[in-house]
Amino acid sequence: MSSALVWFRRDLRLADNPALQAALDAGHDVIPVYIHAPSEEGEWAPGAASNAWLHRSLAALDSDLRARGSHLVMRQGGSLAMLQSLLAETGAAAVFWNRRYEPAIQSRDTLLKRTLRGQGIQADSCNGSLLFEPWQLATQQGQPYKVFTPFWRNALTRWKVQPARDAPPGLSAPRVEGARLDTLGLAPKVRWDAGFWQHWQPGEAGAREALEVFIDGALAGYRQQRDLMDRVGTSLLSPHLHFGEIAPWRIVHALEAGRSAAADADIDAYLRELGWREFAHHLLHHFPATAGENLNPRFDRFAWATPSAASLQAWQRGRTGVPIVDAGLRELWHTGYMHNRVRMIVASYLCKHMRVHWREGARWFWDTLVDADLANNTMGWQWVAGTGADAAPYFRVFNPVTQSEKFDPQARYISRWVPELEALPLKARFAPWQHPHLLAEHAPDYPRVPLVDLAAGRDAALAAYRRTGAG
């Protein structure tokens, strides 16, 4: 029987895996392959938190394969060279993979496919991660969208979700071995990630469980509660989606199965969030330079401040003196994750109050988030900074005090991640610098004043934006 390599990348699952299914449908014995080649990611090689998750996700995938009589063949080195070596070792006639959309990876994959086909090897790629590929939706003028609402309206008119498919019950055993997982250097030598795994279970089983927990719990009331920080009001599926441990269409099918008059608004609200994920990939594909450059060139003239190393580190480590900002950054440091509403507040404080370039924040999130996705990360930071597609108006500056009072009204989120403030009266926990005697008595080690005064920072930011012509 003929064999084919199935090259796993950000599709670390056996169910709903179009590349795997295509190889099986073609009648091939499957040789599952993972190639570790971070240098091919360009300037966006995975960060430390992503690598820590990847280590565990690969272990879970290998375990799932072994339960079906197979195993994951892991190699390290140039992708083309490793694939060619494996083709020679195994006599495989084809290579199948699921597409990725990051600019450096798209360029590599195009060259790789052309080279393999030129050598007489069948090389086919599939859509394993999106409901709509970036080139499938365009304006009436044939241009890419830059605004979400018409993008999503068009998507809904063409809504046809592919069916969910279960994992194959058994697979043939590859007659080739690979590197041991621990030789890839993904797991940190110093276990700074230990706190992550109290919150997360990487792998396909963990993704399925997270979906079930969401449907049974936070989905009811999702539309109203997704912004509340003091509870689990979201799906927590973003890292599983990023690593391809679950397909977006499986999520859609699971949600649609629970449709009812009572659930419609919450389901539609969640599907809209999946739509933002689609929009982010649409933008990155059509505007690949935006991972490091403003989509709106008008903001190239913006007068960003040059932060000191000390002030930037204070922001990174949650020592700004603004409790909701510090809480979010400490949550990130300890769990590899940050609540979405808090991400916007944290980003606004950096870009607008501190007037630090959004690239600094994007880089920090890239290294510390377990769901660090280039498309989502880029779109989110440019949205807050006002420099990107569908961006927040330049004059929108999140007030972290009013935001925390509205979305964390009992300061539970703040108290959890900034526990030194828990002894303060509730009102004082939102803006402790306004209560200096209480702060000195109960939290003497917490910053006495914010890194940047909220009113002064806002005024300086608005003045700088107006000088660009934004106003």
TrEMBL record:
<keyword id="KW-0285">Flavoprotein</keyword>
<feature type="binding site">
    <location>
        <begin position="234"/>
        <end position="238"/>
    </location>
    <ligand>
        <name>FAD</name>
    </ligand>
</feature>
<feature type="site" description="Electron transfer via tryptophanyl radical">
    <location>
        <position position="304"/>
    </location>
</feature>
<dbReference type="InterPro" id="IPR036155">
    <property type="entry name" value="Crypto/Photolyase_N_sf"/>
</dbReference>
<dbReference type="Pfam" id="PF00875">
    <property type="entry name" value="DNA_photolyase"/>
</dbReference>
<dbReference type="InterPro" id="IPR014729">
    <property type="entry name" value="Rossmann-like_a/b/a_fold"/>
</dbReference>
<dbReference type="GO" id="GO:0003677">
    <property type="term" value="F:DNA binding"/>
</dbReference>
<dbReference type="InterPro" id="IPR005101">
    <property type="entry name" value="Cryptochr/Photolyase_FAD-bd"/>
</dbReference>
<dbReference type="GO" id="GO:0009416">
    <property type="term" value="P:response to light stimulus"/>
</dbReference>
<feature type="site" description="Electron transfer via tryptophanyl radical">
    <location>
        <position position="381"/>
    </location>
</feature>
<keyword id="KW-0274">FAD</keyword>
<feature type="binding site">
    <location>
        <begin position="371"/>
        <end position="373"/>
    </location>
    <ligand>
        <name>FAD</name>
    </ligand>
</feature>
<feature type="domain" description="Photolyase/cryptochrome alpha/beta">
    <location>
        <begin position="2"/>
        <end position="131"/>
    </location>
</feature>
<dbReference type="InterPro" id="IPR002081">
    <property type="entry name" value="Cryptochrome/DNA_photolyase_1"/>
</dbReference>
<feature type="site" description="Electron transfer via tryptophanyl radical">
    <location>
        <position position="358"/>
    </location>
</feature>
<feature type="binding site">
    <location>
        <position position="270"/>
    </location>
    <ligand>
        <name>FAD</name>
    </ligand>
</feature>
<keyword id="KW-0456">Lyase</keyword>
<protein>
    <submittedName>
        <fullName>Deoxyribodipyrimidine photo-lyase</fullName>
    </submittedName>
</protein>
<dbReference type="GO" id="GO:0071949">
    <property type="term" value="F:FAD binding"/>
</dbReference>
<feature type="binding site">
    <location>
        <position position="222"/>
    </location>
    <ligand>
        <name>FAD</name>
    </ligand>
</feature>
<dbReference type="GO" id="GO:0003904">
    <property type="term" value="F:deoxyribodipyrimidine photo-lyase activity"/>
</dbReference>
<dbReference type="Pfam" id="PF03441">
    <property type="entry name" value="FAD_binding_7"/>
</dbReference>
<keyword id="KW-0157">Chromophore</keyword>
<dbReference type="InterPro" id="IPR036134">
    <property type="entry name" value="Crypto/Photolyase_FAD-like_sf"/>
</dbReference>
<dbReference type="InterPro" id="IPR006050">
    <property type="entry name" value="DNA_photolyase_N"/>
</dbReference>
<comment type="similarity">
    <text>Belongs to the DNA photolyase family.</text>
</comment>
